[in-house]
Structures are given as structure tokens and as C-alpha cells.
Amino acid sequence: MPILPKALTELIDEFGSLPGVGARTAERYAYSLLRHDAKRSTSLARALERLHSHVKTCPVTFALIDEGEDISPLYSDPTRNKQLIAVVEEPLDIVALERTNQFKGTYHVLGGAISPIDGIGPEQLHIPQLVERIKTDDVEEVIIATNASVEGESTALFLQRFIQEAGLSITITRLARGIPVGVDLEYADQITLSHALEGRRAL
pLDDT tens digits for 23-81? Predict the structure, then answer.
């Protein structure tokens, strides 16, 4: 005999299939929707229904754009510096950089990071398109802004070598790495500590 109604159980299962959502969190999400006005559920269902049909990928930067747009506004904006590209792993990484209000260049989304264990090699990433952009836009600097993980570091090294072997004499930089504010040294991981030592500066 089922403990919960089938419709509620199905919703819990769907929430639970999302990354980072455990069983208890999935139950809270589903029950919260059930307790509140049906309009909230309808609004959520509408947003989910529009997700795939109203979001597409920019053919130049591979950032996410609205269905009515042909190209990312962060690329077509004449105030953006097309000769400066920040290379990121995923589209949401752009959001983090834009929040700083410090970067006025353009972006290039790789679509992931090199990870042999997950079956992701360089051929699955948008690397050839990056090289074409470097040539087309007369790019002067590429900032490799991949994550500070083993996969991110491997991808950064591969990108650097790939660009250099393509005969492109441009400046290649990497985002500075260090110990985040508020984190005790004993809790910092090995990669973070290594970069913090490499990037040390005089006081």
C-alpha cells in the first residue's frame, strides 16, 4: 500500500533526480508546492515547459541566449572588447564573472572540461571554434577561466598548448588562484594552496 499519493511521489522522484537534491530536500520541495496556492505550481510548470523551447545557444560564444536572439548580447554589444576573451567551462560561469562588473571583454564557453573518467575529451569541447574566433576577431588576450579542479587545470594546460601549436602569438593568462577569504589554511585543498604559493606577492 502506497504511503503517499502517486502524483506527489512522482514529483518527489523528479526533484530527487536533479543534481545536488537529496531525498529529504526533494520531499520538502514537493510538499511545499502542494501546500501553497496552485498558481505557484502552474507558474513552475510553465517555466519548465518553456525551458527547452525558449533557450538556445549562441553560435559564436556558446553562451545561453533567448530564442529571439541570433547572437549573445555580450558579444554583439559594441562596448565589449572582442580582442579579449574569457574562456569558461559552462554558461553559468559567465554569470559569476559578470557580477564582478570588472570584465569588459567577451566569453567563450567550452561546454565542459577534459575528463577522461567521464569520457570527455578535447574533441567534445568547443576548442576549434575558439581558435577560429582568435583569428577572426584579432584577439590579443585569452583569459583561461576554467575551474580550479584537476579537470579544469588539465583543460587549461591543453588549451594553452593547443593555441600555441596553432601558431597564434597572443597573450594567454589564467585567473589568479588563492585562499578564499574566511577559509582557514588547514581546510584549503592542495590545488588552492599550490596556486596561493605561486601567486604570492610582496607586502
Answer: 999 999 999 999 999 999 999 999 999 999 999 999 999 999 999 999 999 999 999 99
Q: In what order do the strands lie in the sheet with 105-109?
A: 105-109, 81-88, 141-144, 171-174
Say what the pTM is.
Answer: 0.83
Q: Which long-range contacts (CB under 8 A, 24 or more apart) does 112-117 make?
A: 113/89, 113/146, 113/147, 113/149, 113/151, 113/152, 113/154, 113/155, 114/151, 114/154, 114/155, 114/158, 115/151
Q: How many CB atoms lie within 10 A of CB 113?
A: 22
Helix, strand, coil shares of the chain, percent, nearest 5, are 45, 15, 40
- Element spanning 164, H or E: helix 150-165
What is residue 83's three-state secondary structure?
Answer: strand
The mean per-residue pLDDT over the stretch 173-184 comes to 73
| Max Cα-Cα span within the chain | 69
Strand partners, 142: 85, 172
> Which pLDDT value is given to residue 31?
94
Q: Which grid coordinates belong to 95?
A: 554569470
Cα distance between the two ends of the chain: 69
Report the alpha-carbon angle 92-98-101, nearest 5. 165
Please report where in the chains the cell 569520457 appears, as a residue.
Answer: 119
For residues 158-187, give the mean pLDDT. 81
C-alpha 33/C-alpha 148 separation (Å) is: 37
Report which secondary-structure segment, H or E, holds 86: strand 81-88
